């Protein structure tokens, strides 16, 4: 039985006069991997940012595991901790070591003891293949390594769902797969994931569903196989033809 984890209902988002998200309805079940794809400016990042309330919504509702997103305060901090987010730019703290970057949230937000947080952080860093780098600063790591640290940092909070916003688009080509491999591993272990990416290989390997957005709307949804071989809308056909010839 499918258990809904993230439920987005009739969400509208305006930036001033600009209607950035229009009538968004999307349900992501526990363990499901949803890839969000679409042209630049279609609202993909805005959608991710509303799900962990980095952005407010104009109307509609977003619930995570049955709870509506709180407006502010400690309840919001707690709920945000349930939503792991990985951005295009890794956003690691440059003055903290890799280990400190991963333990900061668990110690500050979850109130973990330092020794326990470090033990878990080391295990997570091993899991994403950067265990040897724990005492270095972010600038001493490659982009692919830094992005894997960013994934470990998000996992350290024990999120119920992970959001990835174009996690490989700032990376040199030879580093893309090392990050995608970690993400495929997470998907196989049953993590619920919403992933904005144009990496069709990842979508085919790991996604249960592709959601195509254009102009702030969800235009179509399908399995990766259906979507890539037989897109229904003209917008999707046009988008895919450009993506393939890149
Ligand atoms: N803070 C903001 N203020 C005003 N407009 C914004 C803001 N953030 C995004 N937008 C606009 O909303 C639209 C969707 O942006 P975004 O969600 O970043 O798209 P995508 O991630 O699909 O490229 C774009 O037209 C963008 O210019
Ligand atoms: Mg974006």
Automatic annotation (TrEMBL):
It is a peripheral membrane protein. Keywords: Amino-acid transport, ATP-binding, Cell membrane, Membrane, Nucleotide-binding, Transport. PROSITE patterns: ABC_TRANSPORTER_1, ABC_TRANSPORTER_2. Residues 6-240 form the ABC transporter domain. Coiled coil: none annotated. It catalyses: a polar amino acid(out) + ATP + H2O = a polar amino acid(in) + ADP + phosphate + H(+). Its EC number is 7.4.2.1. One of its GO terms (molecular function) is ATP hydrolysis activity. Its main location: membrane. One of its GO terms (cellular component) is plasma membrane. It is found in: Cell membrane. Belongs to the ABC transporter superfamily. PANTHER family: AMINO ACID IMPORT ATP-BINDING PROTEIN, GLUTAMATE_ASPARTATE IMPORT ATP-BINDING PROTEIN GLTL. This is ABC-type polar-amino-acid transporter. It comes from Microbacterium barkeri.
